[in-house]
Amino acid sequence: MKSYIQAVQANQNLTFQEMEGAAGLLFNDKTDEKEIAVFLKSLAQKGETAEEVAALASVISANAIRPEFPEVSYIDNCGTGGDGSNSFNISTASAFVMAASGVRVAKHGNRKISSAAGSHDVLEELGIRNDLTANETTAMMEQCGIAFLFAPNVHPKMKRIGAIRKQIGSPTIFNLVGPLTNPIPLHAQYTGINRKDFVMEYASVLTMLGRKRAVVVAGAGGPDEATLAGRNTLVLADRGDLIPFTLTAGDVGLQPAGLEAIRGGDAACNAAIIRSVMKGQRGPQFDTVALNAGIGLFTEGIVRTVQEGVRLAEDSILTGRAKHKLEETAAFCQQCTDRVVVL
């Protein structure tokens, strides 16, 4: 690890292969924790490159526990988080809308880290468990067309790194790799970051990791979601081509709204917001979910434009399909609970 630390402290960018070697040492229990902390802090001070992020993500994914999903097309819409916006769980709500619109969603996520409620905190409030076995997770996908992959379950080797990150107390490269480490081979990915300056690089990372199509967004006002609050910055990665574009609410027929309109609270509060959206209650919360689900549908390629995606997302909510998808997934988890009780 010392040679990698020296290179990074000399302001040298690591190659993909070098970062793979460093990542192997990060997950080696024999590597000194202080050296790991110095490496991560030095890397953050230098500034992470696309190659470094992609290499670390590939090593984490290779060491993950992978449910055996059928070999078909999957999309994830997990963002990096850490944007400090205190919004409700937009990507979680959007995942149900996307699944109800006909795409298979393999959503990666975790409990709260810097927010009041992480995706799996609010999922519990919605009746969806995070302690399913790999076989049950596969069955959820086959039955519901959506499955939730709880990061601690699929990345057991991350536990030690998590403790080191807490000791560091400032952002590291691991704040960028979360959405990139889904153990399921993804055809497409829609993700958000709160670093407008890194959107193009992040899109190139997704290409390196084998995504056929991907969209990265830095939301107007700072969130890692597309918002109604101004001009969102995006990049489409389409089979190796990187295409930057911007998008406002008005571009897709939605009304502008400030970030205060999508603020959430704890898991119970956010679950209540998601339920109200699924019931078709119109307003900025509904529109923000429709916007992000629409971008996700465009990313997967089942619609030609984001505007078509937004209209399809709205229809999935207003016809009750999204609400049914949420209820179907919760009912599946209840069946798993019932089996445990019987045993």
Automatic annotation (TrEMBL):
<feature type="binding site">
    <location>
        <begin position="107"/>
        <end position="115"/>
    </location>
    <ligand>
        <name>5-phospho-alpha-D-ribose 1-diphosphate</name>
    </ligand>
</feature>
<comment type="subunit">
    <text>Homodimer.</text>
</comment>
<feature type="binding site">
    <location>
        <position position="225"/>
    </location>
    <ligand>
        <name>Mg(2+) 2</name>
    </ligand>
</feature>
<comment type="similarity">
    <text>Belongs to the anthranilate phosphoribosyltransferase family.</text>
</comment>
<feature type="domain" description="Glycosyl transferase family 3">
    <location>
        <begin position="74"/>
        <end position="322"/>
    </location>
</feature>
<feature type="binding site">
    <location>
        <position position="79"/>
    </location>
    <ligand>
        <name>anthranilate 1</name>
    </ligand>
</feature>
<dbReference type="InterPro" id="IPR005940">
    <property type="entry name" value="Anthranilate_Pribosyl_Tfrase"/>
</dbReference>
<comment type="pathway">
    <text>Amino-acid biosynthesis; L-tryptophan biosynthesis; L-tryptophan from chorismate: step 2/5.</text>
</comment>
<dbReference type="Pfam" id="PF00591">
    <property type="entry name" value="Glycos_transf_3"/>
</dbReference>
<dbReference type="InterPro" id="IPR035902">
    <property type="entry name" value="Nuc_phospho_transferase"/>
</dbReference>
<keyword id="KW-0822">Tryptophan biosynthesis</keyword>
<protein>
    <recommendedName>
        <fullName>Anthranilate phosphoribosyltransferase</fullName>
        <ecNumber>2.4.2.18</ecNumber>
    </recommendedName>
</protein>
<feature type="binding site">
    <location>
        <position position="224"/>
    </location>
    <ligand>
        <name>Mg(2+) 2</name>
    </ligand>
</feature>
<feature type="domain" description="Glycosyl transferase family 3 N-terminal">
    <location>
        <begin position="2"/>
        <end position="60"/>
    </location>
</feature>
<keyword id="KW-0028">Amino-acid biosynthesis</keyword>
<feature type="binding site">
    <location>
        <position position="87"/>
    </location>
    <ligand>
        <name>5-phospho-alpha-D-ribose 1-diphosphate</name>
    </ligand>
</feature>
<feature type="binding site">
    <location>
        <position position="79"/>
    </location>
    <ligand>
        <name>5-phospho-alpha-D-ribose 1-diphosphate</name>
    </ligand>
</feature>
<keyword id="KW-0479">Metal-binding</keyword>
<keyword id="KW-0808">Transferase</keyword>
<feature type="binding site">
    <location>
        <position position="165"/>
    </location>
    <ligand>
        <name>anthranilate 2</name>
    </ligand>
</feature>
<feature type="binding site">
    <location>
        <position position="119"/>
    </location>
    <ligand>
        <name>5-phospho-alpha-D-ribose 1-diphosphate</name>
    </ligand>
</feature>
<keyword id="KW-0328">Glycosyltransferase</keyword>
<keyword id="KW-0460">Magnesium</keyword>
<feature type="binding site">
    <location>
        <position position="110"/>
    </location>
    <ligand>
        <name>anthranilate 1</name>
    </ligand>
</feature>
<dbReference type="Pfam" id="PF02885">
    <property type="entry name" value="Glycos_trans_3N"/>
</dbReference>
<comment type="function">
    <text>Catalyzes the transfer of the phosphoribosyl group of 5-phosphorylribose-1-pyrophosphate (PRPP) to anthranilate to yield N-(5'-phosphoribosyl)-anthranilate (PRA).</text>
</comment>
<feature type="binding site">
    <location>
        <position position="91"/>
    </location>
    <ligand>
        <name>Mg(2+) 1</name>
    </ligand>
</feature>
<feature type="binding site">
    <location>
        <position position="225"/>
    </location>
    <ligand>
        <name>Mg(2+) 1</name>
    </ligand>
</feature>
<dbReference type="InterPro" id="IPR017459">
    <property type="entry name" value="Glycosyl_Trfase_fam3_N_dom"/>
</dbReference>
<feature type="binding site">
    <location>
        <begin position="89"/>
        <end position="92"/>
    </location>
    <ligand>
        <name>5-phospho-alpha-D-ribose 1-diphosphate</name>
    </ligand>
</feature>
<feature type="binding site">
    <location>
        <begin position="82"/>
        <end position="83"/>
    </location>
    <ligand>
        <name>5-phospho-alpha-D-ribose 1-diphosphate</name>
    </ligand>
</feature>
<dbReference type="InterPro" id="IPR000312">
    <property type="entry name" value="Glycosyl_Trfase_fam3"/>
</dbReference>
<dbReference type="InterPro" id="IPR036320">
    <property type="entry name" value="Glycosyl_Trfase_fam3_N_dom_sf"/>
</dbReference>
<dbReference type="GO" id="GO:0004048">
    <property type="term" value="F:anthranilate phosphoribosyltransferase activity"/>
</dbReference>
<keyword id="KW-0057">Aromatic amino acid biosynthesis</keyword>
